[in-house]
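To make the argument concrete, we let one protein speak, a sequence paired with a row of structure tokens, as a model reads it:
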Amino acid sequence: MWKSRQSGQFFLAAALCLAAAGALRAADVPDTPDAAALDTDTERTPQITMIPDYPKVARRDRIEGEVQVCFDITRDGRTRRIAVRKSTHRIFEKPAIRAVRASTYEPLPKDAVMSGIKSCRTFRFTLEPVVKEAPD
């Protein structure tokens, strides 16, 4: 339980850092899209955590939503059998699946037994307005 909570906090911190970097990079854009990993339900330690790209059409049409993606993690730390469990809008499903597919986890030691429990990750896609400073 503790390890799962710790990895969930890691994902949230990483997502917030990436979101902040994206907001700084797009300071002159009226809306900054943000896709963040809300929570992760897994016992494995992440190596590479990918955050999905915000779809351009969704940004243009001001669509926000969430996607929960479930998957298995192989002994060598790769994700497989990736499937969308819940989604508020189909436009976010492919970016979420691509992010999970590109993410990797620490390989299991040779003597470790796989738990066989499916892992799930929820991504939230939100648009955050950027306040422009008034010219002096």
Confidence is low (pLDDT under 50) at residues 9-30. The domain at 2-129 is CATH 3.30.2420.10 (TolA/TonB C-terminal domain). The beta strands are 31-41, 46-48, 65-73, 79-87, 104-105, 119-129.
